[in-house]
């Protein structure tokens, strides 16, 4: 019993200051923020529209926090275990802290390291995927914003039902639901060949694989947007599905229900793909409904 009490005491001595420091730091930061906000308030008193890649940006931020958490755990646990072990020796003596205790502590340290390293690799892989997607959405968003010079309205990261539509373009020529894919390319070999995707009207053929999933996703999202906008505005609205592949050369080997374009081809979206003539009143109604759902970003100073 005395040994158990001693171990608990050592644990509190080692871990206590770290825990207190973390909570004290968090308290001081929150207190500083409360004092600052009491004196000054944000000049932006309303929610902002979502920028390109907003949802992916939030996921990246969360994963980066998870990454730091695992790194902290990877460093903290071994330090605490070593301090606890030698603390026991100092209080109880070598004879009372045998090899069995050392093996238990060693096993705990190894298990923690294995878990943390596995999580770090998993997080790093997911971050790579999200970063590629974020870059693609940002690039496509910047290209689509140029359509405003042609009188179009552009909304980004539109929140639907349990999914987001990367971009929505509204113009006299119709409504377009734009899905973006940030597929990475092979680093070696023929640069042009490795960067070309063939669209035969039914599937996408990349240099080393083919898929129909992005086309199916684009069609589903456009169908949902068509039904939602028609119901919200009281006017029959058709959203055309568009798949944007920034950084790729698109070889149009056939025509399908989904419009497939490279990033640079997006500037011709309105010129070649008009599918519905919308009046100014209908455009205003559509923009109002889209804006209500997209304007949900709290300014950073107000968070």
Task: Please tag this protein with its features.
303 residues, alpha/beta, 2 domains, 5-stranded mixed sheet, 4-stranded mixed sheet, 7 helices, 11 strands, 55% helix, flat
Compact overview of the structure:
This protein is of the alpha/beta class and 303 residues long. The protein is built from seven helices and eleven strands. It has two domains: 2-19 and 47-137; 150-297, no CATH class.
- The level of helicity is 55-70%
Percent of sequence in beta strands: 15-25%
Return the average pLDDT rounded to an integer.
Answer: 87
Query: How many separate structural domains?
Result: 2
Tell me the number of strands.
11
CA-based shape: flat
**C-alpha Rg (nearest Å):** 28 Å
Distance between the termini: 49 Å
Instruction: List SSEs in N-to-C order.
Output: HEHHEEEHEEEHEEEHHE
Major beta sheet summary: 5 strands, mixed
Number of discrete helical segments: 7
Strand adjacency order, main sheet: 2-3-4-8-10
Structural class assignment:
alpha/beta
In the predicted model, the low-confidence regions spanning at least 5 consecutive residues are none
What does this protein structure show overall?
This protein has about 300 residues and is α/β, with parallel strands linked by helices. The protein has seven helices and eleven strands. It has two domains: about 1-20 and about 45-135; about 150-295, no CATH class. Helices cover about 55% and strands about 15% of the residues. Helix 1 packs antiparallel against helix 2 and helix 2 (about 55-90) runs antiparallel to helix 3. The chain starts with a helix and ends in a 6-residue tail after the last strand. About 20% of the residues are buried. The model has no long low-confidence stretch (mean pLDDT about 85).
């Amino acid at each position: 019993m005395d040994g158990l009490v001693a171990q608990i005491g050592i644990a509190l001595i080692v871990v206590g200051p770290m825990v207190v420091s973390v909570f004290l730091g968090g308290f001081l930061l929150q207190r500083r923020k409360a004092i600052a906000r009491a004196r000054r308030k944000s000049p932006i008193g309303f929610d902002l529209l979502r920028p390109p890649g907003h949802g992916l940006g939030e996921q990246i931020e969360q994963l980066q926090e998870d990454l730091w958490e695992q790194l902290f755990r990877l460093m903290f646990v071994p330090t605490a275990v070593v301090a606890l072990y030698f603390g026991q020796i100092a209080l109880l003596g070598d004879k009372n802290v045998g090899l069995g205790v050392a093996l238990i502590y060693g096993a705990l340290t190894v298990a923690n390291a294995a878990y943390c390293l596995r999580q770090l690799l998993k997080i790093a892989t997911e971050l790579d995927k999200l970063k590629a997607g974020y870059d693609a959405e940002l690039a496509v968003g910047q290209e689509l914003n140029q359509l405003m010079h042609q009188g179009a309205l552009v909304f980004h990261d539109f929140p639907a039902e349990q999914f987001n539509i990367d971009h929505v373009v509204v113009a006299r020529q119709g409504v377009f639901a734009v899905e973006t894919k940030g597929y990475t390319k092979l680093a070696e070999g023929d640069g042009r060949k490795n960067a070309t995707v063939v669209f035969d009207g039914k599937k996408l053929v990349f240099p080393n694989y083919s898929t129909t999933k992005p086309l199916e996703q684009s069609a589903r999202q456009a169908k949902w947007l068509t039904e939602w906008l028609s119901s919200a505005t009281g006017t029959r609205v058709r959203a055309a599905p568009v798949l944007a592949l920034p950084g790729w050369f698109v070889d149009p080997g056939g025509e399908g229900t989904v419009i497939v374009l490279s990033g640079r081809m997006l500037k011709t979206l309105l010129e070649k793909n008009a599918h519905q003539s919308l009046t100014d009143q209908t455009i205003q109604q559509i923009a109002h409904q889209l804006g209500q759902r997209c304007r949900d970003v709290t300014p950073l100073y107000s968070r």
